[in-house]
Design brief:
With 543 residues, this protein is α/β, with parallel strands linked by helices. The chain is 36% helix and 18% strand. It contains 17 helices and 19 strands. The strands form five sheets. A seven-stranded mixed β-sheet has the order 12-11-14-15-16-13-17, sandwiched between helices. It has a six-stranded antiparallel β-sheet with strand order 3-10-9-8-4-5, with helices on both faces. α14 crosses α15. The N terminus is likely disordered.
Amino acid sequence: MSEELGWFAYAPMSGQMYRPDAPAYSSSVHMELDDAPDPGRRPELADLGRLARRGLRGALKVARAEEALTPGALVRSFLGEIATDAEILEETWASYEGVNMQTALDAWLGQQGRQHRCHGIQSMNEDASLTGMLFAGDNPFSARLASISRSSLPSGPDGATLSCVRYGLYLVETDEGDTSSRVVLFSRLAMPEHGRPRAGVEILAADRAAGERIAAALRALSRELNVFRGQVLTFGGDMFDAVDSILSFHRRPAMTRGDLILDDDKLAAIERQVVGIARHREALLNSGQHLKRGLLLYGPPGVGKTHTVRYLISTLRDVTVIQVSGGALGLIAEACSAARALAPSIVVVEDVDLIAEDRGMHPGEHPLLFQLLNEMDGIEEDCDVAFVLTTNRADLLEPALAARPGRIDEAVEIDLPDLEARRRLFELYRGTLQLDASTERIEAVLQRAQGVTASFLKELLRRSALQAAERGEAAPHPGALLVTADDLDAALDGLLDTRSRMTRTLLGSAPADHAVTNAETHPVGSPTGQSSPAGVDGDIAAG
């Protein structure tokens, strides 16, 4: 600090520097803040004027408080005497159904003969209601009029969203025949973090019957215009987040029969159970037969269980698909509820063995698998809902299935591909690769690849193509690669080498100890034999 000035400080709100030895008021300060406290100033006559102005402002604020436009005053002005006398009805939706509530509300408001104005609402406690608005009194935390706040909620695949009003106060004038009437609707999205687990619309109409008609119309429109219907959905994400839906949209897979390498008899059984019943639902219902059914696909990882599910989904184009897997397995009840409302539908539960021993949140609850089976049993017989379960460990499911018989109608084992299946898989995964190899050399490679999965063969072809690319071997067609028999042999040798034990395990091939045995008695790259490998299937939304 300068010795001449000594210590100094900035006076709060004064806009000027204060020093003990400075004059009480400096004319060099161009901006004067009349109301700013300054301990260096002496009382002035102007202070009385400032005090008077403050008192007048406070008195006017109190005197005109009743004239302030509040949500309650707005509703009373719009409806008149019935505002505080009529009953308030409420229609609610699950938290993830907020997008369907907004869709229904927009459709109802847009019908002929209706005009409306929408006002935004701001609430300190995030729990605004029509009752709270009408009887707020002098509560400083009551709801206030504000700009309309919106949230973009998922409404379709490829990032499609719908702009939804978080809090909307709708003043509606509707003409019905020769009469006209007024109604007030208050919509709000779910906010479980603030104690509101469901979305809802409150209805204030002249009489209860009119409110009930509006509630029924909104519920019917939300079912008719449901954005989830006919989509491929995955349960997951942040369930208790009102902005992000717990349902994610995915593109429907596009597959043909030629894209699925599976025994014809087994595929026929699968199609009959899932696709056949869906196609003949009317005839079956007219004959008194039930539509609800369950299919279990079991077998080692990487053999095509998930690929088979994708084929079923691509075949039933107009059916809603709800997949539950991984961390969302605890949302079984919500998934089954959505499937019931969106029928015809398919519920896919992948790796169902993972919940064979898992229990719910509270002590003493049955495993989640029992909950799933009970939910399946609770769906009406004539409801077109198919449950497709996949597992790598059918032995873990047997006790639960024996204790809950009748939920699964068909169980199909999907094995490791035999030689003929490997030939077909080789051609499927080959794509546009050009092969410079005789049929005998290709056959020899497929013979050596005994006991491997479809994933293994897919990786084999990719490694062969990579070797051709690194060698710079180009096919006659521009941009294509030319793979030789030596490339195939080298790629297979690498995958079957003892150093690739973990890679084979991840691809669902023979276990490491079996590969060691073969490496000791056969040349590198000899057949590894058939086994029950460990690994994971893919997701139906992938690929």
